[in-house]
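Subject line: Sequence and fold of a protein, written as structure tokens
Enclosed: The protein record, placed directly beneath this head.
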Amino acid sequence: MRFRMAILIGMFLAIAGLANAAEETPLLAHSPTVSRTQIVFTYGGYLWSVPRDGGDARQLTTGGHEGLPVFSPDGEWIAFTAQYDGNADVFVIAAEGGEPRRLTWHPAPDVAVGWTPDGKRVLFFSPREAYADFDRLYTVPVEGGPADVLPMWRGEDAWFSPDGTRLAYVPNLKWQTSWKRYRGGQTTPIYIVRLSDLALDIVPRVNSNDAQPVWFGDTIYFLSDRSGPVTLFAYDTKAKTVKQAVENKGLDFKSLSGGPDALVYEQFGGIYLFDPASGKSKKVEVRIAGDLPATRPHFEKVGDKIQAAAISPAGARAVFEARGEILTVPGEKGDIRNLTRTTAAAERDPAWSPDGKSIAYFSDESGEYALHISDQAGSGAVKKINLGNPPSFFYGPLWSPDSKKIAYADKRLNLWYVDIDKGTSIKSSREIAGHFDYYGAQIEISPGYDFTSVSLYGLKKHFDKIFSLFWEILTGPSFPENEFDLQKDIFIQNLRVNNEKNSFVASKIIRRNIFGADHPYGSSIEESDISSVTINDISNYFNLHFSPFEIYLMGNFDEAQIQSITKRLSSFRRQNLEEPFFSLVKGSRIEKVVKSGSVQSSVRLGKQIINRNHPDYFSLLLLNHILGGYFGSRLMKNIREEKGLTYGIYSSLNPFKKDCMFSIGADVGNEKTDLALSEIKRELQKLADYLISDEELVTAKNHFLGSLQLEVANPFASMDKIKSLRLNQLGSDYYKSLFESINRSDSNSLLVIAEKYFSANDLIEVSVG
């Protein structure tokens, strides 16, 4: 059964890409603005100031509702948006701190975005005059007074040119600001308008999301997702060309602002300064130590913060998710129970088990969401189930009626279920296929008589997303009963169809009669084999035989990436299994299978022959090529072209690790079977009786060597050759020796080989039809 099981499952790896990323713990500062000496940013709802070189930050405001600061051109003032009185309005504060001054009083929200170049007015946008979902741009005096609307009918982020005659701005609002790589109708261009006559230019783009323009000299810097993650781009207003200013292979840049000699942007809660002169960025190290009331332990009313709820099977209690905690509440009498008490973690989506004993929910206590299962009374240890890689957000846990499994979905629209006793998440074959299809990846499973390989092909940029699931499949496969039964049915149906094909049956019989029915190279999978296989058989066979033997990498790998893969493999103990011995028990010398109603017969002739380690093997390869290895071979010319007995005929050497088989095959009309067999034997005898002409030999050599080179036309094909050499222990000089042997072969040496190995009297014959 061992060699039959290997047809169904396997493990060798050939991988086409890798991507790794690591991030530091973020500060979660945002919306930085820069002057010649300072950086001001928002943190925890307050404005903070830090020197441009970094260090300890100083708190500027205490209201707890401030954000979006922007320095005045001279660095003396900071405009910002705050909600001190329940409405978003524009305020200014001295750069060194002090009492904020309110500049706008309209009941609509007003959001500060910049200054006029002379520093006398603050630029902001507001929907105060809008009749639909858009904003307009305004300026308001820094000393206070009525706001003036700019002439454009709509506008969002904006920045004045240094001379104040033009304005770079984003014209339209995008509702889904966090929709990454959005390419719908709300994508945001950047317009450049001359305020005197409203003459308009547009920063060149192809439906990208461009935002937060900053006019610096003759260049407009802006954020864009046109090349992938949002990063910094620069538009030369004179040359009218766009170039990428900062390469970004990480998370999106979230905000951009400018000062007299530098730009500042935020990425993943970190603050970075960009020097336009050198084109270099540096991270600003910021330390914050402040009195933050929200971070102090305190009581919080959560009755109005309920996010999810479920009811116990008996209806006596209900369970709620509120402010990241999981609580159960009695219907009438009793106490409220906080099952989690983890103020530093977020628990979500509680679900009560049908047997009433347990409550399941998702928790990010470990740093990534996992499935936790708690006793409904809050006693005992919490069972924690890792939901695998890549990390995700998960939703809607649903118990099975027997309380043994939980189904759930993830943000990628995959449907999973987890076996609670085993503590592992399980993905259906359809979901697995969908995951790989989504990322353009492909898995190839190649079972063989001696080895089985599993290969993963994918793009390097998606490798972290595809390799994690691939690794889970290889290291902890599940065999769901419904899918297992379905695959058995499919396999049996395909086998029944194939067994109706004469060529399939003839190939089975010729191998059986050469090696014996119980030999791995002679046996065939039959319907009874598949019907009798159980999930336990497959699982036990996998655990016993399928640990990684060798791994092959093809792609642009660096040393760190190779070490990352090697680290995963290091957890495996190589299994040195004893290879069983099989003796040859040959079958009938001649076997005919008559199938009523068949108009054609499949004929096979074959024998056991020398394998790849024998010194005569290379010459035998060339001789086989001349006999029936290509379209210009002798069998094709005689049996197909001259006699018209078949559409195609071949001869081949089929090497295994421990043996080799020579075979000839063709499909012919029933009435022509004897003639075809006779002509095949005649061609074999001619090779043993007559020298091959120089012209035929040169043609065959050129075709053979050319075909061999085509077999390594791409890197993956080359890797297959390397893998075959290593697994079959053929030596690194195998193909070099093959080329040399073919080139020095002559008619006399091939005549000796034909006499030695191509006797028709040694061949086993099979015909089915």
About this structure: Residues 1-23 have pLDDT under 50 and may be disordered.
